Amino acid sequence: MREITKPDQMQDILSGEKNSGKRIGVVPTMGYLHDGHVALIREAQNENDIVVLTIFVNPTQFGPNEDFERYPRDIERDRKIAEQEKVDYIFNPSVDEIYPQGFSTYVDVEGVSDLLEGEWRPGHFRGVATVVMKLFQITLPDAAYFGQKDAQQLMVIRKMVRDLHMPVSVNHVPTVREPDGLAMSSRNAYLSPGERKDAVMLFTSLQDAREQIASGERSRDVIVESIKSKINTIGNASIDYVEIVDPGTFRSVQQLEPGREYCIALAVRVGKTRLIDNIFLIINN
Ligand code: PAF
After folding, report:
1. From ligand 1's centre to the CA of 270, what distance in Å?
2. Which of 55, 58, 95 is the best mutation target for the ligand 1 pocket, counting ligand atoms within 8 Å of the beta carbon and taking the most?
C-alpha cells in the first residue's frame, strides 16, 4: 500500500496504472473508517484491479457553525484498516493541496442540492460535488463507491456525473448498521452512552413506518407524524426533517402509490450530534 498526498503525483501514478490496462475503483471518504467504509472497499476490490481510498475532511462541505474542526480523525487507525483490506493507494491530501490559494471553481448540481439536506445545510452539496469532481479528476476512476446512508449525496453525484459526461460508474452499497440497527457513521463517535442508546429510535421508527405502509397506510402526513412522535420520545432530540420522497428527484410526495419506490429520509439531532438515516421501499400493488 502506498500513501500519496500530492494530487499531481497521484494523478501520474494512476494514469500509469490506467495505461497499463488496470481498472481503478475509488472509495472517497473523510476517514475515521468504520465497517460501512470497509463494505465499500470490499465492493471496490471485487470489481477493480486497483483500489484507491481517499481520506480528506473536506472543509467546503461544512457550514460555518458545523463540526469541521472537531470531525473525528485517526489516520493511524485508518492506515491499519486500509492495509488489512489490501487497499493499493491511500490518497490523503492536505486542505492546501486541494484548495490552493486562488481556488475559485465550484460545481453546483442545481435542484436536488437545495432540497432536504441542502435546505438544512446550505452549500453542503456544492462542497461535496466540487470535492468529488476533484477527487475523480485526480484518481481517474472507472468506478466509485458510496454508501446508501447518504442517499441524497449519491443522487447529487450521479447527476453530476451524468450532466458532465464523466466516464465513471457510480455504485452504491447498502447502509451498514450496528447490531441494534443504528446506521454506522463516523459521527456516532460524538454520542454519549445515553445518546447512543436513544439514537436507535431513528431506525426503529423507520422500520415501524415500513410496517405501517405494509399494513396499508398511504398518507405521507400520517406516516411522517408517527415517525416524528416516536423520535420525540427521545428527551434531547430535535428533528431537522422527516420526509417521504421520490428517490428519482428527492421531492416529497403526499400520497404513496402502488408500484412506486419511495425513500423515507430523516435528519435528527441527538444532543449536539446530527444523524441522518433512510430506508427505501416499494409499494405493493
Ligand atoms: O460521504 C463522505 O464521506 C463525503 O461526503 C465525501 C463523499 C467523501 C466527500 O467529501
Report:
1. 21
2. 58
Instruction: Supply the residue whose CA is at minimum distance from atom 8 of ligand 1.
Output: 29
* Total-model pTM: 0.97
29 Cα: distance to centroid of ligand 1 (angstroms): 5
Q: What is the pLDDT of residues 24-63, one digit of tens each?
A: 999 999 999 999 999 999 999 999 999 999 999 999 999 9
- Residue 48 corresponds to which cell in the numbers above? 477493480
Give tens-digit pLDDT for 187-226: 999 999 999 999 999 999 999 999 999 999 999 999 999 9
**Sign of torsion over alpha carbons 134, 94, 108, 171:** positive
- 71-78's contacts with Cβ under 8 Å and 24+ in sequence apart are 71/30, 71/32, 71/186, 72/32, 72/186, 72/187, 72/189, 72/190, 73/31, 73/32, 74/31, 74/32, 75/31, 77/32, 77/33, 78/31, 78/32, 78/33
Q: Which of 67, 107, 132 has most ligand 1 atoms within 8 Å of CB, for mutation?
A: 132
Annotated catalytic residue 34: no
pLDDT digits (tens, 9 = 90+) for 158-168: 999 999 999 99
- Measured CA to CA, the distance from residue 170 to residue 158 in angstroms comes to 6
